[in-house]
Amino acid sequence: MPEGILCNKKPVDTVDQLQALLADKSGKQYYEEMKQLDVNGDALWATLQKTLKSRLRTWLEICAHCGMCADSCFFYLANGRDPEQVPSYKIQSTLGELVRRKGQVDNAFMHYVMDTAWSKCTCCNRCAMYCPFGIDMGVMFGYVRGLCFSQGFVPWELKIGSGMHRIYRAQMDVTTEDWVETCGWMCEEYEEDWPGLEFPVDKPNADIIYTVNAREVKHYPEDLAEAAILFHLAGENWTVPSEGWEETSLAMFAGDWEGCKKQVESVYAAMDRLKPKRMVVTECGHAYRATVIEGPFWAGLKSGRTPVESFHYVEWVAEALRTGKLKIDPSKRIKEPVTYQDSCNYIRNAGLRSCAREIMSYIAEDFREMAPCGEHNFCCGGGGGLNGIGRYREARNVGLKVKRDQILATGAKLVVSPCHNCWDAIRDMEEIYHIGIRWSFLKPLLLKMVVVPEHLRPEE
Amino acid sequence: MYEFVTGPLAIFAFVVFFVGVIWRAIWYIRGLNWQMDRVAYGQNVVYGLKGAIRSIVRWLIPFGTHGWRFYPGFTILVFTFHVCLLVTPVFLLGHNLLLEERWGFRLPSLPEAVADVMTLAVMVAAVFILLRRIALPEVRILTKTYDIVLILIAVAPFLTGFIAYHQLGDYKFWLIAHILCGEIMLVAIPLTKLSHFILFFLSRAQLGMDFGTKRGGMKSSGLPW
Ligand code: SF4
Ligand code: SF4
Ligand code: SF4
Question: B33 touching A, CB under 8 A?
Answer without folding.
Answer: yes
